[in-house]
Structure formats: structure tokens, C-alpha cells
Design a protein that fits this description.
The protein has 28 helices and 20 strands. Strand 14, helix 16 (391-404) and strand 15 form a beta-alpha-beta unit. Helix 20 (507-517) crosses helix 24 (599-619). The two termini are 44 Å apart. Bound molecules: (2S,3S)-3-hydroxy-2-methylbutanoyl-COA. (2S,3S)-3-hydroxy-2-methylbutanoyl-COA is lined by residues 25-26, 28, 64-69, 80, 101, 103-105, 108, 127-128, 131, 133, 135-137, 139, 283.
């Protein structure tokens, strides 16, 4: 008995051996943890005084999975399968004692135990699908044997964390013990198992629920059909489904063989590499080298928002959602009333979907106050302007805020592209000025670009990052330049997409390529959705571009039933002969000859300039690291997570190939296009963006 290695120990409590794992931060199944469990089991079994084993973890959680940092490296024994076998084939009953989140390999390990107990706050899940994987240690074969194939399909393809109560009802847990008394509760349960001479119950032998589903292929066909849209482009969900099918149709060991085969296919594929990269990128993005975690922050007890339109209203909801009072200011009462009406409607539709209690709708609405005077913001700790996207208007507002709002408050702009340094000059406190670029709809989109101006202070940055986390956003700290990170890269793509219209491609040709690549929609469908008339003015319009002509014809996008596409009453899009004619007229006027542009060229012409722009953004230190750029494009624009983001995609294609193609397209990319020196240098050195630290 005693320490087995640095992260595991074995102690005796009467005739029960307690095998404790203590490997912060999440007791992941590193080689040391695996070795400790195997050795601990051997010692417990060899000790005749031991009648049962409790497997428990110190720290914040039960085992939260395999150690993702070991993936892609040569496997080290003992394997997770060795751990599972050691437990499941033990001659003495093993009881898993669960707190925190038993996830992935952690839950799989618990499923190899003979019994499982947990505290009420514990959760169970198999989230491997989010890493582009599937439970590779028997989870796809054991889970359906307990909860049945239907619930197993839901769990493995959603990666959801299931609470203790639901897990108990589903049979994943045998008992819930009092909160904070896990060790005592598990020991008591173990003694009960001994006293009652309970059997060495193995999940692998529980075949009733899988046998009942045999001969019912519709379970899987219906599930695939119902989720086709959500799973589009992903490999892992389909592979998870196939493993559950194997659990239903094959004997256990053959099911395990199927699981191992499909697991390895995913593990060695680019989709999982991309999704594991994103897992770490989502944690890196919060780290700002010169703003340490212990930077002082400002308490934000009241938020002010100027503008109760789509953006202002959506932003307000974020803070009301976490119980922070919000004061909204508009210029006219009817605009204020309309804004409140939209917010209430949003909350009520969430409540209708059962995702919000009616009383919480009222609680959140009660946190909102409205006024026509900026003076009502005097006592706010954070004020965010979401007014018209015009520099003069914004500077005027900031000038007024400077004289109204208390000292020490943060003055933020929601601008999507304007120069935050210039906005800050309208105040005597540039250190308090920052950009908080929410993405529309602000109450839904996860991304927040936090724009650091030259004089923004570190406490203001630290507070903004901390607040972003509290409101459930994923925040990327970016520098000041036109379009910051996301929109600047978007412009690079739009330029190429529009240029190809003058070379023979139609909007629907370009959109199809990017949709098939995995984007939620292509550039032209996106423009129609956002509205073609953003920044367009009827008075100044000179029919000089396809977009201007469309707007002049009142074809302003989905909202007018026509834009690049024609839309039916359900807003289904179809290619428009009107748009085709406008494009052909422009080409005729320019004397341009249409040519066949391949899908591959469309894809390269749209994505490689994005990668190039990302490299420039890094050169100019507008983004801290390449993976921040990827986080922006995955969470702000829907870049498919299984392709890792534009910078990861560049690494996947190979920067040498990206540079070669950009040089080959040369003048086609437009007179303003220049190759990023950083991109060229990395390509020449055979390096990747991921090698940049
Ligand atoms: N391996 C290695 N490190 C991990 C890890 C893991 N599984 N999970 C978390 N970390 C690190 C994370 O990088 C961060 O490090 C710190 O722990 C805190 O994490 C065979 C193949 C458990 C719900 O997918 O969902 O098992 O930044 O910031 O918000 O079938 O971490 O501090 O240096 O996220 O409180 C399956 C992944 C693996 C669970 C806690 N398991 N982790 O959330 O903290 S694959 C998972 C999470 C597998 C088997 C398969 C969350 C969490 P740092 P955090 P949190």
C-alpha cells in the first residue's frame, strides 16, 4: 500500500483498497496514470485482505479522458485497453467513485468497473466526437449495453455531459451519494457489495438492450436522416454511428475490433488533427503575453449600451443573461420601445423552446432600463456604443461619454472595422477605450473580437477578456487595422470572389464550392443574408458594380426577396437570370471573355488569399498567434472546425503549395495583391504556421 507513482496511490480502508489518482488539472489518462492504475489493481488483487477496490480521483474531477497531449506521439504502455482489462477482469469488484466530469476514456474506465457511484453534481459523457474521434476504449460497445442504442447515439454524436440524476436513471450510475462525501459514500457502497456478495457484473455481458435493437436498421437510418445537416462534412459522427451499429449487430469482441479500426482511421486523419488543434487553440486564445492573469480588473456592476437596434439589443442580452443590469439609450422613444420589444421576443422564443423559464424572461427584462439621455449612463462601469458605423458619429458620442461617464469606467465601441485609436482621440481617457466587436446576432454568435488600441490599459484589456468569458463568448484580442482580423480576411476573400464574376464564374458557382468546402454558405449567399445595401447609398450609387446595380434595382438581398439570388416565400434561393444578365453586361462593357473556372481554382482563389492576409496580420502583430486567427474564423464565420481554420488549412495544404499557387495566379489576384513576406519565408523554410510560437 502507499504511493504507486507520482500520480497514484493505494490505501486500505478495512477490506477495501482505495486506488486514488491525483494528476492535475483533470486526471487525464497519461502514461503515468495508466501505469499507476494497472499496478494498483495488481497490488489490490494480490492482497488477500482486500475484498473490493474503489477507484477515485483527487482534485476537481474524475478522469476527464485520455491525455490529448499524448495523441500523435508513439503509444506508451500500458495502453488504455490494458487499464480497462485490468479492471474489468479483476477477481475483486471495482467501484468507480465519480465527481466532476467523467469524460471520454474516464467514463470508459468507469464502465469497465463493476459498479459506479457519484455525487449529485457529477456529469458523464463521451465527447470524443468534438475531437474528431470516437470513444476508443470500448465506450461505443459498453454504453449502448447500458443506456440502449438510441440514447447512446445521442450521447456519442453530441458529446453531451449527462448529469448524475439522468445518468442514474439511464443505468450509467448505481447510486448517488451525498455531495462532498464521495469517498465515504463509495466506501460504504463497496462494503455493501462485499456484504451482499454482489457479482462481478461486467457491462460487456449485458446484451439485452443491444439484442432488442437487432433487426431494426431504421434506428440508425432515421438517426442519420434527422442529423444529416448537422453532421454535414464531419467524419466522426458517422463513424460513431457505425460503432453503435456494431454493438447491436456484432458480438462484443468483434464490436471492439470495429471500434478500434474506425478509431485509428479518425485518429490518423486530418479532421481529428484539426479538431484537436482547435481544442487547444480555444484555450490558448485567452492568453495575452503582456497581460498576465493577475492583472487588476475593474468590477462591472452596470453596463450602458448606446443604440437599441439589432446589435445594441443583442449585446444587452448578453449581460442581462448573467444578471448584470443594463441601461439602454436611444435617440427616439419609438426606437427604444422597438428595441425592448425585440429583446423580449427573443427571450420568449427561447422560453417557448423550453430553454428558458418564463420567470427568467421577466428577471432578465427587469434588469434592462431605457432612456433617451446619455446622462443615464453616468454610473455605468462599462459603456458600449453600437451606433451608426460612421467615424464622425462615433467620435461625437465618445466625446459626450467622456464628460458624462464616471472615471474608471470602460468606454467601448462595437465598430466592426473603424480605427479605435482615432475614436479614442475624442476622449481625455484613451486608456479606457477599447473595441468590443460583437458578431451579429450578438446574443447568439460566440465570437467577440476585443480590439486593443495603442493606449488601451492592461486592466481594461484584462476586464474585457474576463467579461467575455463570463458572458459565454470566445474572445480574441486583436489590434487596430481596417477590419481587424475577421473582416480583414473576409475582404480578401470577397475581392477574389467578385473578381471571378468578371472572368466567367457565376455567384452560385463560387458559393457552391465554398459550401461544399464546409462553410455554412458562400460569399454571395452571405451578402444576400446580411443585405447588399450595408454602406450603400442611393444618392451616391453610380451603377459601377454588380452590387450597386442590384441595390439600384431594389434587389437588396433576402429581405427584399432578391439579391444575387431570387428567393421564394420561404427564402429558398435560386440562381437569378437577372443577376446573370447584369454580370454579362459588365463583362461585355469591359470586353472581358468568359472562361471555365474550375472548382479547384475557385477554392484556391478564395482561400489562399485569406491565408496570405492572415500571414500579414501576424507580421503586423494584429493577432497574437495563428491559432487566434483560426478561432476568429471558426466562431465568427463558420469555417468548418474539421479543417481547423484558415491558418491550419494553410499548413494542411502546405505553405509551399499556397505560395506557388498565389504566384501562379499572379495578376488574376488583382493589382493590389501582394504576397506576405512571412508566408514566403515559412514556405521557403518548409515550416508551418503551427511552428510559430
Ligand atoms: N487531456 C489533456 N489535457 C486536458 C484534457 C485532456 N483530456 N482536458 C483538459 N485538459 C487541460 C486543458 O488543456 C487545460 O490546460 C486544463 O486541462 C483545464 O481545461 C480513448 C480518445 C474536463 C470539461 O474531450 O472538456 O478520452 O490550458 O480549461 O473549462 O476514448 O477540459 O490549463 O494548460 O478546459 O474546467 C476525451 C476534454 C479525450 C474532455 C474541464 N475527453 N476536456 O473544463 O477546464 S479523448 C475530453 C474538457 C479520449 C478515449 C478518447 C474540459 C473539462 P491549460 P479547461 P474547464
Amino acid at each position: 500500500m502507499g504511493a504507486i507513482n507520482a500520480v497514484t496511490d493505494l490505501t486500505a480502508q478495512g477490506d477495501v483498497a482505495v486506488l486514488t489518482v491525483n494528476s492535475p488539472p483533470v486526471n487525464a489518462l497519461s502514461q503515468q496514470v495508466r501505469d499507476g492504475i494497472v499496478k494498483g489493481m495488481q497490488q489490490a488483487i494480490a492482497d488477500s485482505a482486500v475484498k473490493a477496490v474503489v477507484l477515485i480521483c483527487d482534485g476537481r474531477t474524475f478522469i476527464a479522458g485520455a491525455d490529448i497531449t499524448e495523441f500523435g506521439k508513439p503509444p506508451q504502455s500500458p495502453s488504455l485497453h490494458d487499464v480497462c482489462d485490468a479492471i474489468e477482469n479483476s477477481s475483486k469488484p471495482v467501484i468507480a467513485a465519480i465527481h466532476g466530469t467523467a469524460l471520454g476514456g474516464g467514463l470508459e474506465t468507469a464502465l469497465c468497473c463493476h459498479y459506479r457511484v457519484a455525487v449529485p453534481s457529477a456529469k458523464c459523457g463521451l465527447p470524443e466526437v468534438h475531437l474528431g474521434l470516437l470513444p476508443g476504449a470500448g465506450g461505443t460497445q459498453r454504453l449502448p449495453r447500458i443506456v440502449g442504442p438510441e440514447q447512446a447515439l445521442q450521447m456519442v454524436t453530441s458529446g453531451a455531459h449527462v448529469d448524475a440524476k439522468t445518468s442514474l436513471a439511464a443505468g450509467l450510475l448505481d447510486e448517488i451519494v451525498p455531495e462532498g462525501e464521495l469517498r465515504a459514500g463509495a466506501l460504504a457502497y463497496a462494503k455493501k457489495v462485499i456484504a451482499e456478495k454482489r457479482p462481478l457484473r461486467k457491462v460487456r455481458d449485458m446484451n439485452e438492450k443491444v439484442a432488442a435493437a437487432r433487426g431494426k436498421p431504421e434506428i440508425f437510418a432515421d438517426f442519420r436522416k434527422a442529423n444529416a445537416r448537422k453532421f454535414r462534412g464531419f467524419l466522426a459522427p458517422e463513424y460513431n454511428i457505425r460503432c453503435i451499429e456494431a454493438a447491436v449487430n456484432l458480438p462484443f469482441d468483434q464490436g471492439i475490433a470495429t471500434e478500434r479500426k474506425l478509431f485509428m482511421e479518425l485518429m490518423t486523419g486530418t479532421q481529428s488533427a484539426a479538431q484537436r488543434y482547435v481544442f487547444f487553440a480555444e484555450r490558448q486564445v485567452w492568453k495575452v503575453p503582456d497581460v498576465p492573469d493577475d492583472t487588476a480588473t475593474i468590477a462591472v456592476k452596470k453596463v450602458g449600451i448606446i443604440g437599441a437596434g439589432t446589435m445594441g439589443g443583442g449585446i444587452a442580452m448578453n449581460f442581462a443573461n448573467i444578471g448584470i443590469p443594463v441601461a439602454l439609450v436611444e435617440t427616439k422613444q419609438d426606437a427604444l420601445d422597438r428595441g425592448f420589444g425585440v429583446i423580449r421576443k427573443n427571450y420568449e422564443s427561447t422560453a417557448k423552446r423550453g430553454k428558458l423559464k418564463p420567470e427568467d424572461v421577466e428577471k432578465r427584462m427587469a434588469l434592462l432600463s431605457g432612456s433617451l439621455q446619455l446622462e443615464s449612463l453616468a454610473d455605468c462601469d462599462l459603456v458600449i456604443e453600437a451606433v451608426f458605423e460612421n467615424m464622425d458619429v462615433k467620435k461625437e458620442v465618445f466625446g459626450k461619454l467622456d464628460s458624462i461617464v464616471k472615471q474608471g469606467a470602460i468606454l467601448a465601441t462595437n465598430t466592426s472595422a473603424l480605427d479605435v485609436n482615432e475614436i479614442a482621440t475624442a476622449t481625455k481617457r484613451p486608456d479606457a477605450v477599447i473595441g468590443l466587436h460583437f458578431f451579429s446576432p450578438a446574443n447568439v454568435m460566440r465570437l467577440l473580437e476585443i480590439v486593443r488600441a495603442q493606449k488601451t490599459s492592461k486592466p481594461v484589456i484584462a476586464t474585457s477578456m474576463q467579461l467575455a468569458k463570463k458572458i459565454g463568448k470566445i474572445a480574441a484580442l486583436v489590434g487596430v487595422c481596417p477590419g481587424f482580423v475577421g473582416n480583414r480576411i473576409l475582404y480578401a476573400r470577397q475581392l477574389q470572389a467578385q473578381a471571378m464574376l468578371m472572368e466567367g464564374a457565376m455567384p452560385w458557382d463560387v458559393d457552391k464550392v465554398l459550401y461544399d468546402f464546409g462553410m455554412p454558405m458562400g460569399p454571395f449567399a452571405m451578402s444576400d443574408l446580411a443585405g447588399l445595401d450595408i454602406g450603400w447609398s442611393k444618392e451616391k450609387s453610380k451603377s459601377s458594380t454588380v452590387r450597386e446595380v442590384l441595390c439600384e434595382m431594389d434587389r437588396r438581398g433576402q429581405k427584399t426577396g432578391a439579391g444575387f439570388y431570387d428567393y421564394d416565400a420561404e427564402r429558398n434561393a435560386k440562381p437569378s437570370p437577372v443577376t446573370e444578365k447584369i454580370i454579362k453586361d459588365f463583362m461585355a462593357k469591359a470586353g472581358a471573355q468568359a472562361r471555365k473556372i474550375t472548382d479547384q481554382e475557385i477554392l484556391e482563389r478564395c482561400t489562399y488569399p485569406m491565408i496570405n492576409e492572415g500571414a500579414k496580420i501576424l507580421e503586423e502583430k494584429i493577432a497574437i498567434r495563428p491559432s487566434d486567427i483560426d478561432i476568429v474564423w471558426i466562431n465568427g464565420y463558420g469555417w468548418p472546425v474539421y479543417r481547423g481554420g484558415p491558418m491550419f488549412y494553410g499548413d494542411t495544404v502546405g505553405l509551399k503549395n499556397v505560395v506557388a499557387k498565389l504566384k501562379e495566379y499572379g495578376p488574376k489576384l488583382g493589382a493590389g495583391f501582394t504576397l506576405s513576406p512571412l508566408l514566403e519565408q515559412l514556405a521557403a523554410e518548409g515550416k508551418r504556421f503551427q511552428d510559430l510560437k
